[in-house]
Automatic annotation (TrEMBL):
The chain crosses the membrane at residues 12-30, 127-149. Residues 217-416 form the Histidine kinase domain. SMART domains: HATPase_c, HisKA. It is an enzyme of class 2 (transferase). InterPro entries: HATPase_C_sf, HATPase_dom, His_kinase_dom, HisK_dim/P_dom, HisK_dim/P_sf, TCS_sensor_his_kinase. This is histidine kinase. SUPFAM superfamilies: ATPase domain of HSP90 chaperone/DNA topoisomerase II/histidine kinase (SSF55874), Homodimeric domain of signal transducing histidine kinase (SSF47384). The lineage of its organism: Bacteria, Pseudomonadati, Bacteroidota, Sphingobacteriia, Sphingobacteriales.
Amino acid sequence: MKLSEHYTRTSIYSTLMVLLAGAVIYYFAIKYIAQQQLDRGLQQQLTEAEEYVRSSNQDPQQYDLDKDHAVFIKTNQWQLQKRFFDTTYFNPKEQRKEAGRAVEDLVKLKDTGYKVIITISRAGQKYLIEVITIITLALLAGLLSVLFISNKYFLNGLWKPFQLTLKEIKQFNIADVDQFKGKPSKVDEFAELNKAIREMSLRVTHDYLNLKQFTENASHEMMTPLAVVTTKLDTLIQDETLSAEQLAQITDIYSSINKSSRLNQSLLLLAKLENKLIADEIPISLDTVLSEKMLQFQELMQTKDLSFKHNLQAKQVLASKYLIDILLNNLFSNAIRHNSSGGVIIIELNGEQLSIKNTGTTHSLDEQMIFERFQKGKDSQGTGLGLTLVKNICQHYGYIIHYYYESGWHTFTLKF
């Protein structure tokens, strides 16, 4: 969820809670004020009723005045607690029952006591409270609507510099000449963020260029003497005067030099992958490439009496032909090198995944360490970077590489 949505949700929830609490308090406050006003009116009517009783010098009778309704009941009580209460009564003018507010008190006439109950209509008050409640709820809904619209649409303009900065960060390539610039903003926090990112990008680019220059120089300085040594060894191997022991020693040196050269190239390729410096992507028919690879490795397969089984469906990927070639070479080499004599390699390809399965050792490899650098078996003659390259190439294209062992079969599965 985006930050603006979090802010909108939090703002609306907090505002809604405050407004609802305020509306409830406002409702009861209005109700209380209206009730106090009715009670004051009843008190005035009660005073008038007492004067009416004292001035009449006879038994008081029930009477109605406007919407006021008074009832006199003879009683033997000489003390009665005055009270105000809500009730209903029949309004003779409207000819219907209405909600009312009443007061009850004791009125004395000579030696006789009368309980007087005066009732006044609450219809007007009730209607007024309903109108005020409806207006309040309407204002509440309107305010929430305005708040939602302003947060959702108007605040998008406020976050636009941040979104542009984020977009530029995603498009930032350390190898590009153009540096991060950032979009100007009147918001101090965004301007400060752009400044910090700009300074960081300059430091990162500077460090990258230094590292790249060092790597290229080191690679060049390593490859030059290796090439010279290889040339000298080629010349020595052709010397017919060499003994078998000397020839064997030169062959070992030659093998070590080739291994050093492959190691150097693998490390350079890993550095390029980690810095995303390979971007020559073209459509590749993976089923066709796999068929070609099986032919290329056929001679090596025969040396260990291995056989291929395959089920290839059409699958096209957008990738670098160079990287796909390296990925498949390493997977094929791994399946052949670690296979047992007379074993089988099964290759399956469909629209979702590629799996390369081979027979071999009767125990599982370490799934956590198998893709780490320089992790290899004791008898392995490789550089220990083959599967690391496979993993990094998969990460480069967003593929998922997984290894598992089951019933004597070692399987590498690549999910697109």
